Amino acid sequence: MNLEALVENVAVDLLRLAAVRLPEDVKQVIRRAYGKERSGIGKVQLKAILDNIEIAEQKGIPICQDTGLISFYMEAGSRFKVLEKVEEALRRAVQRATSEIPLRPNAVDPFTQKNTDDNTGMHVPYIHWRIVSGDSLEVTAFPKGGGSENTSTLKMMEPSYGLKGLKEFVIESVVKADGMPCPPTIIGVGVGGGPNVAMELAELSLLQPVDKPNPNMAIARLEQELFEAVNRTGIGPMGLGGDSTALAVKIEYAHRHPASYPVAVAFQCWAARRATARIGSRGEVEYLTHKV
Amino acid sequence: MDKLKKKEFKTPILEKDIRRLRVGDIVFVTGTLFTARDAAHRRMVHYLKEMRQLPFRFDGLPLYHCGPLVRKVNGEWSVLAAGPTTSMRMEPFEDEVIRNLGVRLVIGKGGMGERTRKTLREFGAAYAVFTGGTAVLAAEHVKKVKQVEWLDLGVPEAVWVFEVEAFGPIVIGIDSDGNSLFEKVQLEAERRKAEIFKKFES
C-alpha cells in the first residue's frame, strides 16, 4: 500500500476509535467521579454514562449521536514522505468514515443551511499542523460535539485583574454554561496571546491526557485549584446538582501583549473523544491512545 | 445518598399522573414517543400559524429532543444512537407545541426557559432529562421505529416515532407545579460562586 492510502486508512481507524471508545485516561476519571459523587441524581447520571461507554464499546457504535465537527491535529516530521498529500487523504478518510462507521453528517453551510452530508466542507475537517523533526507523522482525530462547543467563552480581560480575574472568569463561565456542555466536563483554559491564540490554546489543552498534570509546577497548582473550585459550584452531572462538574481543568498559555490579557475557556463534554496514531515513512503504524 | 423515587410510565401519559411527579423523580417510559428538534419545531409552529393540519397527532406521548443516528437495513430503520440534544434551542416553539399537540412529557437535556415552565404548569406537563451523550444506552431502549415523518428535513431533523421499553433513567427537571431543579442548582451555584470568589482573595 502506498503511504497516502495508509494515511487515509489510519485516519478512518482513528475516527472510529475516537467515536466508539474513550481513551483509558478519560474512562478512569469518570469512574473516579462516580466513586466520589454524593448526589443520588448525580450518581444516576454517571452510572448511565459508564453503562453507555461500555455498551458503545461492546457493540462498536458511536458513544454519542453527535459525532462532532471533525478536526485533526498533526505533528508532522519534516521528512515524512507525502506531506503534500495528507490533507486530501484526510478529507477522503472523513467521507469514508461518515458512511462506514457511520458518523452523523455535521457540516452545514452557514449561509444556505445546506448539510454537505459527508462531514467535509469549507475548512472542515479542520487540520492543525505542527512541523517537528523526524520522518513520521502523528495524527490525532478530535471530533467535538456541538453542545460543549456552544458554551465556549473568551474574554479580553483588563490586565490589572490578573490571576484573580482569570480564576473568576473560569468560574463565571462554568456557572453560566450550567448543564449545557454535558458535565462532568474537561475544562480547557487558554491564556495570553491574541484572542485567536487564547482560544486555540484552550482547545489544544484538551488534547493532553486528562490525568497528566501540567509539567510547569505553578500551572499544575493553578489547574488543581481551579478544578477544586469548579467542583464546589455544585452544578454537577448534567447540571442536575452534585460534586462532579469537571473531570479536570487544563491550562495552556502564551505570553501576552502588555495591554491585553485574553482568557479563553473551552468545554469538552464527558465524551472526550480523541485518538492518536504515529505513521512512519516506511509504513509502520503505532496507535498511541488505544489498544488495537 | 438522596432517596430516589423511581417510577414506571406507560404511554399515553395522563395529566393526573404527570401532576403527581416531582422534580428529582426518576422515570422509565414504556410505549411510544416521538422526536423533534430544531427544524421540526420550526415547521410545526409554522403549520399551526397557517392553521394547516399536522400530519400526525401525539396526544399524551413524550416529545424527545433528539436527532438520532439511524441506519436502514433491508428496508427497516434501525436506531444506533439516540441521545438527547440541548432543549433550550426549542424554547421559542415549545409553548405552542405542548398545547397544540397535547404533550405531557418533554424529554431533553440542559433544561428549558421561563415560558415553557409556565406552559408546563398551566397545561399539566413536565420536563425531564435524559443523560446527555448516553446515546447508545438510549438506543438500547428503542425497540422499533414505528413511523417517520418529514424526512425531507434530513435524518436528524425528521420526526421519528419510536416504540420504547423502560426508556430511562430520565430525571424530572421541571414538574407540573413549575418547580425547577435547574433553578435550584443555579441559585445554589450563584451563592457558592460568591464564596469561591472570596477564597480567591486570600
Structure report:
- The complex is a heterodimer of chains A (about 290) and B (about 200).
- Chain A has helices at about 5-20, 25-35, 40-60, 85-100, 145-150, 160-175, 195-205, 215-230, and strands at about 70-75, 125-130, 135-145, 155, 185-195, 245-255, 260-270, 275-280, 285.
- Chain A is an alpha+beta fold and about 290 residues long.
- A 5-stranded mixed beta sheet of chain A has the order 2-1-3-8-9.
- In chain A, a hairpin with a 5-residue loop joins strand 8 (about 275-280) and strand 9 (about 285).
- In chain A, helix 1 packs across helix 4 (about 85-100) and helix 2 (about 25-35) runs antiparallel to helix 3 (about 40-60).
- Chain B has about 200 residues and is α/β, with parallel strands linked by helices.
- Helices cover about 30% and strands about 30% of the residues of chain B.
- Chain B contains 6 helices and 9 strands; from the N terminus they run E-H-E-H-E-E-E-H-E-H-E-H-E-E-H.
- In chain B, the strands form 2 sheets. Chain B has a 5-stranded mixed beta barrel with strand order 2-3-6-7-9. In chain B, strands 4-5 form a two-stranded antiparallel sheet.
- In chain B, helix 2 (about 40-50) crosses helix 3 and helix 3 (about 90-100) runs parallel beside helix 4.
- The model of chain B has no long low-confidence stretch (mean pLDDT about 95).
- The chains are: A alpha+beta (about 290), B alpha/beta (about 200).
